[in-house]
Design brief:
The protein is built from twelve helices and twelve strands. It is an alpha/beta fold. The protein folds into three domains: about 50 residues, Orthogonal Bundle (434 Repressor (Amino-terminal Domain)); about 140 residues, 3-Layer(aba) Sandwich (Rossmann fold); about 130 residues, 3-Layer(aba) Sandwich (Rossmann fold). Helix 7 links the parallel strand 3 and strand 4. The termini are far apart.
Length: about 350
């Protein structure tokens, strides 16, 4: 007599339920624990997957998980600069102080390390919330966010308010307007502007602030005074060389970050110009580079570590209060104009 075939005793995992339902593991967990973070349609899809796979929750494992520290992901582009260093330091400090743990996800533009894939990897690794840096956080669609339903996502240093994602940021538009007004108050009338990367919202809002300050002072906007950059030192070299070839050349230049502003100082000095006697130069961020150059850089202080720390705190609070509503909120942090030796009174024509 043939033996009856034995059924597999392997337990179905929550990951398999998530794959069947087309959601994240955290969303499955939220459904099974009765948390109010998911839509009725998502809840129904998860329960259908549970029934189809005959999934039995592991109560002991769930109990252990509930006692574990919160896990926060930090998602940013795979590159090195002072901004990202400050962001990670701020995130680490707050995560540690609040008794949580941190995962780091560094993305690139293509392949397995694309932004969406890395975000998925963080969630699959157990991240219950993720701090998302620009420019990726500024491009998330409604469909993208639906995939991470139940995960506490928070954007940082977004150039503007985002319609679908909460964020922590400064007033980029107001900061650029204030710095341009300060240059105007010093007597400058031809003020160059070096843009940031085109895929960053802050490039658009800072440029808008620059134009508003010119308009408020009844100064004619000259498009020749606006040149493209991409937030790198090398792009600042190219941009400043272009500005210095203009006739008449600008007496002041505002750059969308400190790296490009430092490059602008280097170009001016190579051309035999004295900063700020011949040309004033201002930057953005107040990164460590701002006090390494000579003369030291006038800049807008964006408290990046504080922004990241506040974002992590909000993420952890959301994880610890899973049934609380999560409206889309923009949390503003104060910026500050820092005047140093790279700006001065406009030269007499």
């Amino acid at each position: 007599m043939a033996r009856a075939q034995r059924k597999s005793t392997r337990a179905v995992t929550m990951q398999e339920v998530a794959a069947q339902a087309g959601v994240s593991v955290m969303t499955v967990s939220n459904v099974l624990t009765g948390k109010k973070l998911v839509t009725d349609a998502t809840r129904a899809a998860v329960m259908q997957a549970v029934e189809a796979l005959h999934y039995v929750p592991n109560i002991a494992a769930r109990s252990l998980a509930s006692a574990a520290p919160e896990l926060v992901g930090v998602h940013f582009r795979n590159t090195e600069n002072d901004y990202l260093s400050a962001m990670v330091i701020g995130a680490v400090d707050t995560t540690s102080r609040m008794g949580a743990q941190m995962l780091v996800g560094r993305w690139d533009f293509e392949g397995d390390q694309s932004p969406m894939n890395v975000l998925r990897q963080l969630v699959r690794s157990g991240a219950q919330g993720v701090l998302v840096a620009p420019p990726f956080c500024e491009t998330l669609t409604a469909d993208d966010l639906a995939e991470f339903e139940g995960i506490a996502l928070m954007g940082v240093s977004t150039g503007d308010n985002l319609p679908r994602l909460s964020s922590v940021r400064i007033d980029d538009r107001g900061a650029a307007r204030a710095m341009t007004r300060r240059l105007i108050a010093l007597g400058h009338r031809r003020i160059g502007f070096i843009k940031g990367a085109p895929n960053h919202l802050s490039t658009t809002t800072r440029f808008a602030g620059y134009r508003e300050a010119l308009q408020d002072a009844a100064l004619v906007f000259d498009p020749e005074l606006v040149v493209d950059g991409d937030l790198t030192f090398d792009s600042g070299l190219v941009a400043m060389n272009r500005l210095m070839r203009l006739t008449p050349r600008p007496t002041a230049v505002l750059s969308c970050n400190d790296d490009m502003a430092a490059a602008a100082i280097a170009v001016a000095q190579k051309l035999g110009l004295v900063v700020p006697d011949d040309v004033s130069i201002a930057g953005f961020d107040d990164s460590p580079l701002a006090i390494r150059v000579e003369p030291k850089l006038t800049t807008v202080r964006q408290p990046v570590a504080e922004i990241a720390g506040q974002a992590v705190r909000l993420i952890i609070e959301a994880i610890r209060n899973p049934d609380a509503p999560r409206p889309v909120v923009t949390h503003m942090v104060e910026h500050q104009l820092i005047e140093r030796g790279s700006t001065g009174i406009a030269p007499v024509a």
